[in-house]
Amino acid sequence: MARVLFAVTSHFKDENGWESGCYVLEVAIPYYHFIKNGIEIDFVSPNGGEVPVKQLDLDDPKVKCFFKDKEASKKFLNTYRPIDIDAGKYDAIYFPGGHGVMYDLPLNKEIAEIAAEIYENNGFVCAVCHGGAGLLNVKLKDNSYLISGKQLTSFSNQEEVAIGTDEKVPFLLETALKERGAKYSCKANWQEYVVVDGRLITGQNPASDLLMAKELLKAFNKKK
């Protein structure tokens, strides 16, 4: 049975009081697709424990259903710390989005090392939307960045401008990925778009989370 580690943010507010946190739909939709296909899931965050979520997201009916699910909410409200994780137990790591990811996961060396170990153990590294920020500082044993020279996507600069957050975020993710040497591509705002480059699977935006999950499941089945 395959096992996937969800790596989520611990960040909630910046110095100006802007709330971000984790975008739970990008957790819940892949979570249920994996669970119904027999995949085991664990959660890790930089600080461990409860994952911060904006009130607006908590009002979403699908998110409410996720939190009513005792097993799912227990895992989400009691995430592991990086020190608790044995990367050798996982077949993939997945970085969901939410603007909070941009503040802490690129700076978290331990989670970056977990992702690198999973990848170098012939596992998969996946991200959707702002979750791509978690890929920025993942370095392999040869000291190269995992995403250097890889085809990928993430929330685009034009989408950031469209929702008025381009002046709030600590950096523009599309730009940062390109600066790391990634071969970035995207579609028009809010369109479903997933890029598969070997064992790196990335989705552009919230519309892409289910397709990302399907591509990972397809990759698992090919390895059998």
What distinguishing features does this structure have?
single chain; 224 residues; alpha/beta; Rossmann fold; 34% helix; Class_I_gatase-like
Verbal overview:
With 224 residues, this protein is of the alpha/beta class. The chain has one domain: Class I glutamine amidotransferase (GATase) domain (Rossmann fold, 3-Layer(aba) Sandwich). Helices cover 34% and strands 14% of the residues. The protein is built from nine helices and eight strands. The termini are close together. The model has no long low-confidence stretch (mean pLDDT 97). This is Type 1 glutamine amidotransferase domain-containing protein. InterPro entries: Class_I_gatase-like, DJ-1/PfpI, Prot/Nucl_acid_deglycase. Pfam families: DJ-1_PfpI. Keywords: Glutamine amidotransferase, Lyase, Stress response.
Shape label = globular
CATH topology: Rossmann fold
Uncertain runs with pLDDT below 50, 5 residues or more? none
Tell me the strand order in the biggest sheet. Answer: 2-1-3-4-8-7
Helical content, roughly?
A: 25-40%
Biggest β-sheet, characterized? 6 strands, mixed
Structural class by SSE content: alpha/beta
Under the CATH scheme, the architecture is: 3-Layer(aba) Sandwich
Mean pLDDT: 97
